[in-house]
Amino acid sequence: MRIIAGRHRGRTLRAPEGAATRPTADRVRQALFDMLWHAAWGGRMAVQDQLVLDAFAGTGALGLEALSRGADHCTFIEKDRTALAALRANITACGEDARSAVLAADATRPPAARVPCGLVFLDPPYGKGLVPRAVAALEAAGWIAPGALLIAETGAAEALDLPGWERLASRSHGAACLHVLRKPETG
């Protein structure tokens, strides 16, 4: 597993042994960031200079990819101790300690946010219905800015319904499905 593009292109990321994490495959991350970069609703400003939240962060591959491509700051939320060790090692290996914050917390019960984020990644374990629960909790805690882009990875067979959110795209990649949604500007 490696960073695909940007200032950290080619940097290998550490993943913990076992099944504690299921890192997003390089080809899926490439497809996701290509979509963010080139879609009519996206563009470079979808990533560059954004405050990013990578919840259920695991190795931090999504947030680190965003930092590599010009995001301003990323907050990583992860609760598994083994994954936290790999995440912290990956942040340090990329030299991104100053532009990162790591919260050892559950994304379905997050601490209050200091500043809301404009780009949010959710990559929870598949088949547990965690995306809607996490979105509700993160919104209540102030993590998601009005107009934010939300990228949620689910199992390919999982449906995702977030009432009030605008669905921009859904793409299947093997066992995974990427959902891109936008939070309304108001309400």
From TrEMBL:
CDD domains: AdoMet_MTases. The keyword ATP-binding does not apply. InterPro entries: RNA_MeTrfase_RsmD, SAM-dependent_MTases_sf. One of its GO terms (molecular function) is 16S rRNA (guanine(966)-N(2))-methyltransferase activity. It is an enzyme of class 2 (transferase). It comes from the Bacteria. SUPFAM superfamilies: S-adenosyl-L-methionine-dependent methyltransferases. Residues 1-12 have a biased composition (Basic residues). Its EC number is 2.1.1.171. This is 16S rRNA (Guanine966-N2)-methyltransferase. It comes from Neoroseomonas alkaliterrae.
